[in-house]
Specification:
single chain, about 150 residues, globular
């Protein structure tokens, strides 16, 4: 997992061949104020979803999730979001892996890393990073606009 700000995105370009494409799309989405929706960047290799929603004050409603085939970049355009993350070796499966959606859900953990990600910030989650995004900091809901980039491993 990585938590950082957009001005440091260049540091992570070497992690994966499509990391730079993902961050360039984020910059384009901000510059052009792209609306919510799904966006193809390079077929199934890299794509995006722009989301607008109210984050969740009830942490028990959300589930820890993981992906086997994609890296997530979860970039907060506006608002703030509390995110929890732990290593895949520390969790037990709650809902088995759905290959079509590339997602598996896990039981909650009592110990995890955490961060509040705000405007111009992001989390990068690799397949071993089980994460619970979409939470309201201090359990006070607010509107969030997020760009979610999916990069095939």
């Amino acid at each position: 997992m990585i938590f950082d700000k957009l001005e440091n995105a260049h540091i992570y370009y070497g992690i994966h061949k499509n990391m730079e494409k993902g961050f360039k799309f984020i910059e384009e989405a901000i510059k052009n104020n792209l609306p919510a929706g799904k966006y193809e960047i390079d077929g199934k290799e890299i794509f995006a979803s722009i989301q607008e929603y109210e984050n969740c004050p009830n942490f028990e409603e959300k589930k820890f999730e993981g992906h086997k085939n994609y890296i997530d970049i979860q970039f907060i355009v506006s608002g703030s979001e509390y995110m929890q993350v732990c290593h895949i070796s520390d969790v037990e499966t709650k809902i088995p892996y759905n290959e079509e959606k590339d997602v598996e859900f896990y039981y909650d953990k009592e110990s995890f890393a955490e961060a509040v990600v705000s405007d111009n910030g992001y989390g990068i989650f690799f397949p071993e990073d089980i994460h619970k995004p979409g939470l309201a900091p201090n359990k006070i809901p607010q509107n969030v606009k997020k760009v979610l980039i999916k990069i095939k491993v």
